[in-house]
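Listing S7. Sequence submitted for prediction.
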Amino acid sequence: MNAKEIERCIDEFGTDIYRFCLKLCGDKTDAEDLYQQTFLKALETEWTLDWEKNPKALFFSLAHNLWKSDRRKQARRSQIAPCDNLDDDAELILRSGENIEERYFQKELITEVRQIIQTLPEKFQVPLLLYYLSDCSIEQIATVIKKPPGTVKSRLFKGRNMIKKRLEDAGYER
């Protein structure tokens, strides 16, 4: 790939790739690194893009594979020398006139759902992130994870049920 093609890809679907990286990593700095690594890796390869065959899925797949590789590397390193992340989430400043209690419960629910998604097995986590946060179709997800569309549908269904069950177990009612 050349720089012009990469630039066109970034313009066309760079925000979707970044959003996917952000949801995979759960951290803005790690997501930015993954995003840059994805396009750098694409630039380094000798691929030629076929714009008729959905190149967006190729970049989702590339980002997913780089993320998996990095997770394996971190797991090996943490076995040798474990370390903890000391960063705390910054508190949001509430605007006057907002319902503080409702906002608090909504923020708590969002945090709970994010934690549940992070604890799901990867085979459920990745299709859920791609489908709901990156607006990918079933066929695009199937291309990214290299599984048939029926498997993707099944994993989405099971993932939603796992999230629902865990939320109900935590005391959240519909």
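Caption to Listing S7: primary sequence and predicted structure tokens for the chain studied. The chain is about 75% helix and 0% strand. Residues 86-96 have pLDDT under 50 and may be disordered.
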